[in-house]
Every structure is written in structure tokens, then in C-alpha cells.
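hey so i finally got around to running the thing on that chain from the lab meeting. sorry it took forever, my laptop kept dying and i had to restart like 3 times. anyway pasting the input first so we r on the same page abt which one it is
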Amino acid sequence: MRIGSRLANAAVSDIRAMTRACDAVGGINLGQGVCDLPTPAPVAAAAHAAIDAGKATYAPPEGVPALRQAVAARVAKDYGLEVDPASEVVVTLGATGGFAAAVLALLDPGDEVILFEPYYGYHYNTVVALGLTPVLVPLRPPTWALDPDLLLRALSPRTRAVVLCTPGNPSGKVWGEAELDALGDFARAHDLTVITDEIYEHIVYDGRRHVPLASRPGMRERTVTISGCSKTFSVTGWRVGYAIAPPQAAQRIAVAHDLLYVCAPTPLQHACAAGLAMPDDYFRALSVSYQKKRDIVCGALADAGLTPYVPAGAYYVLADARRLGCATAREAAFKLLDRTKIASVSGASFYRDPVGETLLRFCFAKDDDVLEEAARRLRAAG
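ok and heres what got predicted. didnt touch it at all, straight out
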């Protein structure tokens, strides 16, 4: 059978490969961001109710009205952004499905897309798979600060869009207003679309707050904001995300999403609508809970000599793995798994720059008891 060349260099990610290796030894998986914490009771109850009510047919291409309305209400309450649920919100098969639909709908093969490094692998690989060219702008630790000169150097006549992930996976960087405005100035000056992945918007630390790029001056009309319910409600396997965009763009994203996926699971859309309507205290408590988890893992990594770059948001931490004495980060990840039965992910999964071979990523979306045991093992092996 002839095999197409479009995905000739693609493979199952190191993240999934490490999960399988971890399962094989009965280890603690701090590699893949599976987020196996309990689903909030109101969200689970709403899923059961929707299934019991027979809400099992296809959803509209834009998503069920209840969820689109809940998204619009949430962003109005949290960020003061008034969006029309009927024309500016599209429900997608997870945030990654929303990203793929946005790229397919708004960009053309041969276009160049700027991504910040370290990047989320699905962003990079989706851009490549759809025939576009990723151009990388490095953000360097420990602050991951934007260098405007490097951003300008990445520009070419074929540049059409910028991809922004905040809070960032894997770095945990949370973009502040000054950097967002600098990016906004750049996008407006060069007539670029910005696609933002804000799936970790409710997980930020040390008193920070998430600021959507679309809320900054002049950026509402050229930003596609992507988020979802996976991380906020610990339902990564439900695959319910959403995109917010100006009406014409949202309409095309809905068409692309229908072509790729038809719709996100109908009863789970109703459940996520109930989740987004939960009291504000739930969303505030999320950051407090995850900050405790962050501190457990980062403290253990530091004690083990794997210096962590303490994240400002999301639920991952990159750590310097050179102390393990390995030639590659993948080798370091497997060495750590063999020593401790703790899975991590090679930093090369998020970099083209060789610095990725010196880093490991750890996910701390786990129960505190599991993290305390992982911390004990890390310190013992240090």
C-alpha cells in the first residue's frame, strides 16, 4: 500500500510513548498531562443527566446553545469581554481540535506561522501537517521573556499568523499586559492573525491573573481565542473545547470543524455548560490547589539536583536534567524512570533548539498523596 508523504516524519509523541513505558512498570506518570483528578460533582451530574435525557444526537456545527452561552457569560464575568454566543463562539473537539480547525479555516499552505519556543507539540505538528511553515522565536529561562528583536527577525513576506500559548505548556509562562501589548502592536503593524491557546487560563500562581490577548486594545478583531474544559474540570478525555473569534472567522472555523470532527460529544457539552456556570469560588480555588502541587514537585526536584524553572501558571514544570549525565533528554527520562519509576517527558518534545536535550518536563496534575510519594522517590534518588 502506498503511504502518503504528508505525515512521513510524524510519529506517536514521546509523551504517549513515556506513558506506555510508565504503565509497563507500574510507575507514577508525571509525563503526560492526563489530569486524573476527580471531576467536580456538578459537572459529572450534568453529564449523567444529559445522557439520561437522551441528548445523544449530533450537536449543531457551532455547538449546543447552552454551552456557547455559558462560554460567553464566563468570559464576560472573568475578563469583561462581551462576545455574541450565537456568532462568535464555536464549540470544538477539545482545544487541539479548535486549533486545527482555526488553522485550516484561516490559513493557507505555504503560509508561515510564528510559534514561541518551547512550544506545545500539537501546535507545531498541526501547522506542519496542514502544509504551513512554523518559524520559531525562542523564549529563554528563567523568565521566558519576549525579545522583540527576535520576534521581528522571524517576520517574512509569507508570515500570516502568530501562535501564543498562555499560561504556557510546557514552560508555565504567563504573559503579562506589557508583553501582550508588544505582541499586539507587532500583529497590527504587520496585519497578522494571532491564535491563542488559553486552556490553562484558570491555573495561575502567586497572585497573578490571566489576561486574554483579545482583551487588549485593538486585538479583539484579529485574535482567535481557544480554550476548553479539559483542564478546568479534570475531563481531558471528554474533548470539549471552544474558540472565540470575530463572526466571519468563527463561521469558517465552524465549517472546518464540521469537516474534521462533525461535533464534540453532545451530552458532555451540556455538562461543561453546567461547569462554567459554577460559582467563582471554584475557579479561584483551582489556582490555590495547583500551587500547592507545584510547590511539592518543585521542592523535590530542587532537592534532587534537577533544578526546576518554577512555573507561573499551567501544571507543568521544566527541570534541568544535566545532572543525570545523559546525552539526550529521552535517555535522561528513561534513566529517571528506571531509577524511580517516575515518568517525565523529554524537553526535546518542545524544542528544535538543542537546549531541549537538557530538560525534562514534569506534570503535577495529580492527587497530593501521589505527588508526595513522587517527591520522596526523587529525593531518595538525588
